[in-house]
Amino acid sequence: MSHESRRRGRPAANAVDGRERIVAAARNQFAAKGFRATTLRSIASEAGVDVALIAHHFGSKLGLFAASLQLPEKAHTLLLSSLAGPPRTQGKRLTAAYLSLWEDPQTGPQIQAITRAAVADPEASSALQSTLSGLVAQADVHQLLEGRRTGFFLAMSHLLGIAIMRYVVQLPDIAGADLDELAARIAPAVQRHLDASDKQTSAS
User: Fold this and answer.
1) Which of 28, 61, 151, 171 fits a disulfide with 196 by CB distance 3.0 to 4.6 angstroms?
2) Which domains does the chain have, with CATH numbers?
3) pTM here?
4) Which residues carry the record's DNA-binding region feature (predicted)?
């Protein structure tokens, strides 16, 4: 196989592995040190790659942070399936799905890293805003949320606040609560947000 054929084909396995190691190291450092204090050199050192490879794949630290925001496909599928089905029980399904992502050993640390960095730094917060707006703009999600975009963001804000108290701040009353009981108490409020149309929200 020629060099030209390899270049046009799928990326070499070591290139994919290097990219994944960079993203994993970035998530670790953004979580531990925040966006501003994290450097590309420290990420490269942890990932075991040359810093030039980060620039090649992501362009900048902000580009790398944006890449670290991308959740696994299973997370997208889980959230999407929670919005499908009977509208009257969307709140219950979305609450259970969202909290399960924080509980999951793969996605939980990733979401915590994203949250810590976004709360602490305006640039990281802006990147997260763009990611969330892009998620809602996707055709499959947009169709399920037609006319209820604001309600969805209010529901997610409610869930994020609970998640921060349980998993980041670890407030004893919330962190120690039974997960199913906690979800059952939260779901009705989430449902009220999802039930409200954008017209109702703007008129109130």
Assistant:
1) 151
2) 3-68 (1.10.10.60), 73-199 (1.10.357.10)
3) 0.72
4) 39-58
